[in-house]
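Job type: complex structure
Entries:
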Amino acid sequence: MAWQFTGDRPIYIQMAEHITSGILKGEYQMGEKLPSVREFALMASVNPNTVQRALFELENMGLIETQRNTGKFVTLEESRIEMSRNEMGKALVADFIKSMKALGYSGEQIKDIFENERKAGESNESENA
Amino acid sequence: MAWQFTGDRPIYIQMAEHITSGILKGEYQMGEKLPSVREFALMASVNPNTVQRALFELENMGLIETQRNTGKFVTLEESRIEMSRNEMGKALVADFIKSMKALGYSGEQIKDIFENERKAGESNESENA
Amino acid sequence: MAWQFTGDRPIYIQMAEHITSGILKGEYQMGEKLPSVREFALMASVNPNTVQRALFELENMGLIETQRNTGKFVTLEESRIEMSRNEMGKALVADFIKSMKALGYSGEQIKDIFENERKAGESNESENA
Amino acid sequence: MAWQFTGDRPIYIQMAEHITSGILKGEYQMGEKLPSVREFALMASVNPNTVQRALFELENMGLIETQRNTGKFVTLEESRIEMSRNEMGKALVADFIKSMKALGYSGEQIKDIFENERKAGESNESENA
DNA sequence: GTGGTCTAGACCACA
DNA sequence: GTGGTCTAGACCACG
């Protein structure tokens, strides 16, 4: 829930991803009004221009819509949201597999490593719970 | 097989990844002499400075070693190579899972999507073969 | 026929254009009383202030006149209406041609494209009719 | 050739249109390097950020491509340029006809006015020539 | 020298 | 109070 940014990538990109995540997870409901640009800026200790840039990305993806002088709202079209989730998910898998193959792993090996790590991660979670 | 770089990330990083991949896959054998900086620069139509930086990354990781006035060679220590592969592989999996969860997917869903895409990718490959 | 506004331009401008169109087309007859500001506001789900501004534009153009405590009426002077139509029409043509030339089209090409699109548009209309 | 901007629309939009026009007309050749962001800024007496924003629009349309730390170049794909010209041209015609109809003109009337104004414009040009 | 990113701060039209 | 636009100026990685 904290707004932590790493220095390796542009803040506005990380911010866009964070808010996107919030929408896809339903933390921001469909049709809901987002915090204002200035509120976001305060929350994240960031310049309003940076927020605007981040939200511009979301608007391009069709995840949010701007109502002039009223605010920015999560889109009402559920299909947009689902589409984004699917697209981004598939892209992630494709990139992941491509990167693993660049390391010399075969399809089967990728599957094995993935399974191992996934289970390891889940057991970590239950420890923390 | 061409040296294609995207504009979104530094060229020297992409180059380092590409050569790393070559080493991990065995295209450059253990102990083998790498092409000279100039040769790399010509192959990739890139500034020699850029090649220097890329190779510096590899040297830092212990994948290659410089022999003064002779050239740069792939390390002879197999453990180095295996370690790199493992580290990088685990990091990739962890990042992948983290990103997927940011999209709102559960552990099981990630597994399903991964399996689907992996199989789709493999059938594509066999088509092209 | 609904009151739809796009977010890229001020609502009051779009509203002014819409009502102007109604007058020029004769949907609001000469001398006819216009709906009250409040009625317009309800019809368009818009702030009354916005309606005020829109009607102010029309009054400036001489298309409507305010009678204190009675309402706003379409002008009785037909010349006003004709003049507005002519001015606006010519301005539109001039802008259109200027914009097309900015795209690199010659006068003849503009004519051809215009004719093609116009006919295409008309055949679409007759389909819907 | 002068960089004149009107106050009614954002500078970065007008700038984007102006440069787009230059590309479509061939004043900037395919594959040619554009002036740097800073040069544009000086030419137009405008802040570099504003230029960046303008060029970002062109990049989105696929008319130009950025090579990191080298400059921005007109795309090499002629199809992109032709496509843009066609799309923009058709959009202009459609908007024009729609606006004229909103003034109460019939299809035939639009054609007549268009022809008259077009010829008037051309005779003006020959006078100046 | 190039583009990319970010900040601080300002003004504006609009609702 | 909202988003939109713009400026001035800074720093950075890269080539």
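Summary: Chain A has a mean pLDDT of 92. Residues 10-12, 46-50, 53, 68-70 of chain A lie near DNA strand E (CB under 10 Å from a C1').
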